[in-house]
């Protein structure tokens, strides 16, 4: 989906490519659905009139051990973004680092707690350094899709 002018908000509405645009969104989290069913689920979203997919990026799954990253199979974020684009869906990506209260530690990896001085979700350098390392990996993967 190439565009000359991205999403904009004025006092009355959103516009995309200078045309009025209404975000009709729904969530399907790629890591909760077997990859073989991704297309089926996204097509069902489209059939319901949804034009925008929202999804989290779970840090705890993508970096289960410090410095060990996994973006394969059900965790292939780039493949999921490509699929959404090929089906004409826009994506609101929610990379965290904290994604939601329904996940242990909000999706933060448990290895963070090995640091006895850890202060989660603060400017504590042990936390921010780990977040920056994770975001460095994620940003490289998502930049081509922005």
From TrEMBL:
A UniProt-annotated Pfam family: Glyco_hydro_35
Signal peptide: none
Annotated Glycoside hydrolase 35 catalytic domain residues: 13-146
PANTHER family named in the record: BETA-GALACTOSIDASE RELATED
Similarity field: Belongs to the glycosyl hydrolase 35 family.
Protein name (Swiss-Prot/TrEMBL): Beta-galactosidase-1-like protein 2
Source organism of this protein record: Ataeniobius toweri
Gene: GLB1L2_2
């Amino acid at each position: 989906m190439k565009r000359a002018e991205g999403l904009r908000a004025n006092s009355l509405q959103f516009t995309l490519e200078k045309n009025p645009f209404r975000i009709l969104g729904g969530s399907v989290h790629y890591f909760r659905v077997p990859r073989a069913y991704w297309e089926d689920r996204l097509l069902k979203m489209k059939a319901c009139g949804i034009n925008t997919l929202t999804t989290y990026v779970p840090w705890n799954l993508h970096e289960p051990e410090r410095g060990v990253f996994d973006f394969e199979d059900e965790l292939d974020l780039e493949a999921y973004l490509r699929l959404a684009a090929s089906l004409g869906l826009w994506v609101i990506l929610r990379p965290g680092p904290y994604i939601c209260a329904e996940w242990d530690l909000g999706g933060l990896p448990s290895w963070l707690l090995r640091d006895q001085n850890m202060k989660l979700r603060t400017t504590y350098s042990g936390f921010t350094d780990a977040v920056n390392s994770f975001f460095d990996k994620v940003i490289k993967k998502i930049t081509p899709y922005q």
